[in-house]
Design brief:
Helix content is 42%, strand content 12%. With 177 residues, the chain is of the alpha/beta class. Helix 4 links the parallel strand 4 and strand 5.
Length: 177
């Protein structure tokens, strides 16, 4: 049976996390529950779904929200950089939020920006995730890693190789499927 659940994946989560946990305790729940805080969730709280990069002030506000979420029990930050509004962000925003949670032991888990050949592309999306972890000093998990579509079916070796290189360089990297 199911003994543990970890919601808050791919950039979306209940907010604030402390209220979510309190509701679970009040209503009673059988399995263990931990949660990530969604980047899309805190980005919406600060700036809605605007199609633009965050200002320094907005990034600082997101960092503050992330710290509070960590204090209330979040495992770390999840992104869904393929989805609105995370797709409107730039790497520096995600790095800054991860830096805010790093001293608290946060983990960065991501549905990467692209899993096929369009736009930034699969390989560069994986490198973006790895760079977030390296620059912020946090472990990285690539959620449901895959090569989506015939155009990138031959790219799995390059993805595995770059992940292994970052691991050799000291970045803690995992992936799930």
């Amino acid at each position: 049976g199911v003994t543990s659940m970890i919601p808050g994946q791919c950039g979306g989560s209940r907010y604030p996390i402390g209220k979510f946990f309190a509701t679970l305790e009040e209503q009673g729940i059988g399995p263990n529950v931990a949660s990530f805080t969604g980047h899309n969730t805190i980005r919406k709280a600060v700036m809605g779904e605007e199609n633009r990069f965050a200002t320094d002030e907005e990034i600082a506000a997101m960092q503050d929200l992330m710290r509070k979420e960590m204090e209330e029990g979040s495992l770390g930050l999840s992104t869904g950089l393929y989805y609105v509004p995370g797709c409107f962000s730039e790497s520096r925003e995600v790095i800054a939020i991860c830096k805010a949670m790093a001293p608290m032991g946060g983990i960065y888990t991501t549905h990467v920006r692209n899993e096929n050949k369009e736009g930034i592309g699969l390989y560069n999306s994986i490198v973006e995730a790895l760079e977030v972890g390296r620059l912020a000093g946090v472990p990285v998990n690539v959620s449901h890693i895959k090569c989506l579509g015939k155009s990138v079916w031959n790219r799995s070796d390059s993805v595995i190789n770059v992940i292994e290189q970052y691991q050799k360089d000291g970045v803690k990297v995992t992936a799930d499927q």
